[in-house]
């Protein structure tokens, strides 16, 4: 007899906007997020025996997200994710874990005539601040915060040479190249025992996000990069040092290639090597380089 070896369900793509109106100053502050909330627990009979008595409807999950957003702060997203997940394991004794993902969209306050505008915002499209949290009756609360879709480019200060050369290799070694990527950088917090512990750390989440973003940009700009791998490792080390409450830092960086273009067919125009000025940005294929860097000096155990 087969059995349900894993199951979770809930609502995805729940879009929420919340405004805070400061009555004394007239300044309004907005937050927009997309929430996914999936539940796990003693729910296998809903799959195997059509037993809906164990099902908290996904519609109710959606309603709960809106209600808790009305009744509580939705920022920082780590706090709201923990609050939301904790609600489900407290309210329903047969639900043992909630998996919450929050994508926060950046609405930056407009500066008009040199002054911050009280109620107008511009979207910093592309980049989001994400949180993935698992709130578990047995294992406490694990939270990973991340920066996703931060697009960066440097026009020099990057090299790539000394790599394996064999009968499969066509890539020339370079001592000066364009480096461009869309940063996906995550940091996993040491486990929290309860939502109260998350609440006690509430001041740390925005600071960690700012530190991770600043470190990523500074290392990207200033590192004399030997490779994506070497630069992302330095970024990871810096974040672990700057945010002592984190356990692991993870980067996933596409290497977005810009190819040189030979224009010598037209009157011998020089556009290669040190003469290169016009390049062709590639949409794919792209390199994809990932790493997780954790505290301590334990080596990777298996060689796969
Ligand atoms: O920084 C890089 N790392 C690689 O592993 C790699 N591979 C490649 O073709 N170009 C690059 N660049």
From TrEMBL:
The keyword Nucleotide-binding does not apply. It is found in: Peroxisome. It holds the Pfam family Uricase. Its EC number is 1.7.3.3. Keywords: Oxidoreductase, Peroxisome, Purine metabolism. It is an enzyme of class 1 (oxidoreductase). Pathway: Purine metabolism; urate degradation; (S)-allantoin from urate: step 1/3. InterPro entries: Uricase, Uricase_CS. The keyword Protein biosynthesis does not apply. It catalyses: urate + O2 + H2O = 5-hydroxyisourate + H2O2. Belongs to the uricase family. Catalyzes the oxidation of uric acid to 5-hydroxyisourate, which is further processed to form (S)-allantoin. NCBIfam families: urate_oxi. This is Uricase. It comes from Bionectria ochroleuca (Gliocladium roseum). The lineage of its organism: Eukaryota, Fungi, Dikarya, Ascomycota, Pezizomycotina.
């Amino acid at each position: 007899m087969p059995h349900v070896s894993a199951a979770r369900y809930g609502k995805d793509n729940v879009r929420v906007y919340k405004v805070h109106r400061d009555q004394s100053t007239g300044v309004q502050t907005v937050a927009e997020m997309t929430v996914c909330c999936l539940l796990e627990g003693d729910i296998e009979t809903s799959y195997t025996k059509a037993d809906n008595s164990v099902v908290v409807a996904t519609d109710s999950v959606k309603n709960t997200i809106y209600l808790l957003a009305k009744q509580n702060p939705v920022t920082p997203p780590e706090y709201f994710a923990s609050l939301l997940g904790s609600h489900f394991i407290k309210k329903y004794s047969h639900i043992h874990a909630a998996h919450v993902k929050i994508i926060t969209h950046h609405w930056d306050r407009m500066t008009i005539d040199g002054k911050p505008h009280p109620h107008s915002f511009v979207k910093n499209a592309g980049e989001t601040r994400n949180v993935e949290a698992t709130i578990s009756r047995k294992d406490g609360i694990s939270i990973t915060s991340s920066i996703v879709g931060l697009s960066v480019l440097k026009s020099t200060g990057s090299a790539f040479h000394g790599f394996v050369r064999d009968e499969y290799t066509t890539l020339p070694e370079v001592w000066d190249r364009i480096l461009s990527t869309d940063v996906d950088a995550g940091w996993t917090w040491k486990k929290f025992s309860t939502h109260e512990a998350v609440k006690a750390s509430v001041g740390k989440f925005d600071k960690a996000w700012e530190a991770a973003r600043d470190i990523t940009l500074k290392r990207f700009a200033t590192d004399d990069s030997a490779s994506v791998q070497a630069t992302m490792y330095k970024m990871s080390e810096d974040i672990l040092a700057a945010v002592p409450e984190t356990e692991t830092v993870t980067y996933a960086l596409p290497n977005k290639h810009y190819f040189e273009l030979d224009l010598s067919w037209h009157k011998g125009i020089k556009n290669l090597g040190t003469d290169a000025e016009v390049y062709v940005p590639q949409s794919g294929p792209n390199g994809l380089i990932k790493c997780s860097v954790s505290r301590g000096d334990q080596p990777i155990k298996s060689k796969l």
